[in-house]
Amino acid sequence: MTIDLDRCTGCRACMVACKIENNTTQTAFWMYVFRLETGIYPDAKVSFLPRPCQHCDNAPCVKVCPVGARYKRDDAIVATDWDRCIGCRYCEVACPYGVNYFNYKDPKKGLYQDWKDPAIQSATVGAVPGWANPDLEEKYGSENRSIAGGNHIKGVMEKCTFCVQRVEKDMLPACVDTCPTHAIQFGDLDDPDSSPSVAIREKSNFKLLEDRNTQPRVTYLGSAIGSGAREIERPSVRE
Amino acid sequence: MATVNQIPVLPYGVGSVSRGWLAAIALLLLVFVVGAFAYSRQFMYGEEVTGLSDVGTRGGAPWGLYVVFVIYFVGVSTGLMLIGVVAELLKIGHMRAITRIAEGLAIISLLLGAMSVLADLGQPLRGILNFFRYAHPMSPFFGTFTLVVSGALFASVIYLFLTLRPDAAILAKRKSGLSTFYKWWASGYKDTPAERARRERSSIWLAFGILPLRILAYSTLGFVFGLQVGRPGWQSSLQAPGFIILAVVSGAALLILVAAAARHIPGAREELSIPVFSWLSNLMTILLGVYLYFLLAELLTTGYTSTEAGWRVTSSLLIGQFAVLNWLSIGMLSLATALGGWQLIRRSYSLSMIVIAGVLVTVSAILQRYLIVVPSLTTGHLLPYEEGTYTPTLIEYGVVLGLLALGALMFVAFLKLVPILAIHKESD
Q1: How many domains does chain B have?
Q2: Does residue B423 sit within a domain?
Q3: B318: domain range?
Q4: Pairwise CA distance, residues B17 & B29, whole Å
């Protein structure tokens, strides 16, 4: 995946698309866009930094998982088997990027609307939630493991899956598909003609926290955001 | 069973039930039930009832009080076992008085440590199964579970079994309600010279094995933190050695407190004499000095060479949201060192001073673990997240208190089955 910081307008459509596709709970942002500010008025500068899971090749979270629920797939996706996860949160503690979201409560109670409300139920024919995507319950890959989507059960870890349920159908991840400025590109980095490969060749680029040797699979195009950047606003923090 | 007019058949109150003992059991049971109720809330509703939350946009700490007490309990267990084994190996005569307390407490606190891990898990039932079913050796947790829970627990139980056998053989001969239990424990052991030599040989070899095993096992818990590239404030090669030093310090402190309380057991006061406590106090003081030196070295390294995030963690400890706790715990550790050092220099020891130092060290050892676990999670962000917060809830305090009560229950039950001081020495 490549993310062109010069193109990103900070609209956060990717965050919304991710939530709808993956059915995540309130305050869980598998894709999160930092809206950052550097410098002091009148010389302040605003910049945006989308932050999906970096799907590292040398992933600290994969190394520390005591039960192998967090693992690296052959196609480079770092997946979380919610059917195996024991909820120790070591992956979250190990991750330098803060991309993990734990189901502290029954996820059905963390949705944006009360889908058990009779008025809503009459419109959704009883489905909870109304947009529940059956693909999220499937098993994926040659390992045949439960790795897609969020909101399954309480007490397990979840995070960005690169929309594995879409990628396996040759579709793009939801954030990529929805980005109005085509800031996010997704494809096979081993293929020299794929859009991320071309983008990396043509533009100066960097990876997040490269000095940690996590070897991320997400490459940022454009110039790095200087130190001392601060968030302009933050979302409501608690579940 | 002992009656008022008879000399007790079994020593040190073993097998006899007094009113005070029953009252203590009732009180501890009550606290344990409160803890169990607190845990039942967490089990049903998930960890939203705790103060834990996610690192990053949710601005919290995913590890808190439970992990703090995992480190504390396993640390105390390691320290106690090391002290007990070393006292036995070096054949320090008067220190034999505390070896049994140390070994019993070591096993109990190891069990409590394992339970604290389960309390922390989002899916505890899966945890019990999957730790074994899908064990992943690359995870530092793997070492903790194989070495600590399986290896160390097994070795410690066998060690206690062996060291208790001569006493069991003696007690089995006396007529009491527990003689069947002792017969089972002695399992044919008669304490003949040949048997004694064999038992002592195997105990010594086991002790030699336990020493490196326990050090390695607890080091893996230090590496759980020390190996993390993503958490400034944790990544340090001093983490594991620091864990070991503080483990022995906190083990000695708990041993001082329990042994001081055990002096009230009839007949135990003579053996649990001042030399026992002064030896423990000296050990604790010297290692406290080493620990404070480690703290200083760590502070200087992170302060002088620090990255932006590393400095945020350090400054949160020095002047930020953890400053009060940090200075309180350093102050208490220094005071305990001063108390112990003063007595060491003057070569004159007072039990009450040693006990005060023990209390100070026990409290600040728990605080130290809190100050290792939490600040790095709430302030050590490498991306521009804002500073997080973590405040434990009543549920978490309840569960921890319940665990402490369970440990105390196990220990008082242990005292009713096993003589707190070895008796085979006095009868040979």
Answers
A1: 1
A2: no
A3: 19-417
A4: 16
Any domain includes B65: yes
Number of A:B CB contacts under 8 A? 172
Per-residue confidence (pLDDT) for residue A128, from 0 to 100: 65
pTM: 0.93
Question: At residue B180, does pLDDT exceed 90?
Answer: no
For B141, the closest of A90, A95, A104 (CB atoms) is: A90
User: Which chain B residues are closer than 8 Å to A106 by Cβ?
Assistant: 45-46
Assess if residue B252 is contained within a domain.
yes
Could you give the dihedral angle defined by the CA atoms of residues B282, B285, B291 and B292, in that order, rounded to the nearest 10 degrees?
-150
Domain A2-224 -> CATH class = alpha beta
Residue at A87: amino acid letter: G
In a domain, residue B5? The reply is: no
Q: Does residue B427 have a pLDDT over 60?
A: no
DSSP A140: B
A83 touches B: beta carbon within 8 Å: no
Does B150 reach chain A within 8 Å, measured CB to CB?
A: no
User: Which helix (H) or strand (E) segment is A158 a member of?
Assistant: strand A157-158
CATH of the domain at B371: 1.20.1630.10
CA distances from B212 to A45, B68, B104, B155, B427 (A): 56, 24, 19, 12, 33
Find chain A residues with C-beta within 8 A of B119's C-beta: none
Window 389-408 of B, Cβ < 8 Å to A: none
Q: Which of A65, A90, A105 sits opposite B45 (nearest CB)?
A: A105
